[in-house]
C-alpha cells in the first residue's frame, strides 16, 4: 500500500478563511514576533497597547464578589449538566432585569439568549441574518470580527463611515445610499471600539429612525455598556426598540474585566414583537440548537454576580479608565506625528491619525507598528485592521504607569524617525 505521506491529499480548505484573515490576533502575532526579545541592550518590559485585555493589571482586577459567585455556583452541584440551548432560566431572568434598569420598559427573560462571550453572539447573528443575497451595514472603523464572520457566512458587507470631525457619529446620509432591499441590518458599537466615543441619545434616535425608514434591524454591540466616563451618559439602543427592532449584544468580558470567562448574551429589545412575527426568532432558536453553549456554572453564577457586584467596583473602573484616557490623549498631543480628533469618553481604545509626511522611511501604519515593536518593545494596532489605513488604534486600558512609559517610547520613536528639515 502507498505510504501515507506519499499520497496526495489535495486539501483545499474553506476559502473564506483566507478572506477573513485580517484579524486583530493575526496582526498582533506578527507584531509580537518582531519584538527583539534577545537584544541585550533592551531590558525594558514589552508593553502592549494593541490588545484589549486589562485583566492582568491589579487596578483592573475583577470584584471578589463575582469570583465568589462562580465558586458558589460550582460548589452547589446544580450546574454540572448541559444547559438549555437558550440559556439557564435564572441567568436569563437576571440579565433581563439588569438591562431593564436602564430602559423605560421591561424586558422579559424570553428576550435573552446566552452565548460564549460577545464573540459568539456576533457569530450567531451574522449566521442567522445571512440569507442568500443579503447584505449588512458595518461601521468603519469597526470591530473586524463582524467582517470576518460575514465573509464566512457569505453575507455581503457595506461600510458606512463614522465621522471623526463629528465625535465619530454615524454618517446617516451615507446609510440611506448604501441600503437596498437586500439590506438586513446595521451594526453600531456603543460605547465605541475602536474610537472610544459615546453616542448621544439624540443621535441614537436618529439612527433608529433611519433604520426604521429603511426597514432594517439595528444590532447594538454594547459589550462596553455603562463604560462611559465623559459628558455623554451611556444610553442603551434598546430604548428605541419600539421605533425599530434592536438586537443588543453584550457580555461580562469588558464590564467585569473577565474576558476569559466567555459569557455573553443576545437580547432582543422589541416591545412590538416584530422579530417574532418576521420569523427571526425561530431562525435564531434553530441556530442555537446546533451551537455550543456557555458553561452552565457560569450561567448559574450570573444572578449572584449581578446582585452582589457593588456600584463602587464600576465607579473605580470608570475612574481608572477616565484617568488613563486623559493621560493617553495628553501624551498623544505631544507626539508630532499623531493627532487624536476626539478625546475618548468611553470604552477602552482610541483612534489616532498618523502623519507619515513627518516621518522618514516609514511606509504605512503596519510598517510603523512593526518598527515600533522592534525598536521600542511597544505594540499598537495598525488602523487598517479596523478599517482605517494609516491610523493607529491605541488601547489605554492598562495600568497608568505602563501607559505613560509606552507613550514616552512612541514619542522617542517619532523623534528618531522624524524627517529632517532641509534648510537652504
Ligand atoms: C471585546 C469585544 C467583543 C468580544 O467580546 P467577548 O465577550 O470577549 O467575546 C465584541 N465586540 C466588541 C466591540 C469588543 O470590543
Automatic annotation (TrEMBL):
Instruction: List residues traversing the bilayer.
Output: none
Spell out which residues are annotated as carrying N6-(pyridoxal phosphate)lysine. Answer: 254
Per the record, the GO terms for biological process are: L-tyrosine catabolic process
Please name the PROSITE patterns in this protein's record: AA_TRANSFER_CLASS_1
Q: Which residues form the Aminotransferase class I/classII large domain?
A: 59-410
Top-rank taxon, per record: Eukaryota
Pfam families, A to Z: Aminotran_1_2
InterPro entries hit by this protein: Aminotransferase_I/II_large (IPR004839), NHTrfase_class1_PyrdxlP-BS (IPR004838), PyrdxlP-dep_Trfase (IPR015424), PyrdxlP-dep_Trfase_major (IPR015421), PyrdxlP-dep_Trfase_small (IPR015422), TyrNic_aminoTrfase (IPR005958)
Q: Which residues form the signal peptide?
A: none
Q: Is the keyword Cell membrane in the record?
A: no
Q: Which GO terms describe its molecular function?
A: L-tyrosine-2-oxoglutarate transaminase activity; pyridoxal phosphate binding
**Names of the cofactor(s):** pyridoxal 5'-phosphate
Query: Sorted alphabetically, which keywords does the UniProt record give?
Result: Pyridoxal phosphate
The UniProt entry's sequence similarity note says: Belongs to the class-I pyridoxal-phosphate-dependent aminotransferase family.
Stored NCBIfam families? tyr_nico_aTase (TIGR01265)
Kindly provide the name given to this protein in its UniProt entry: Aminotransferase class I/classII large domain-containing protein
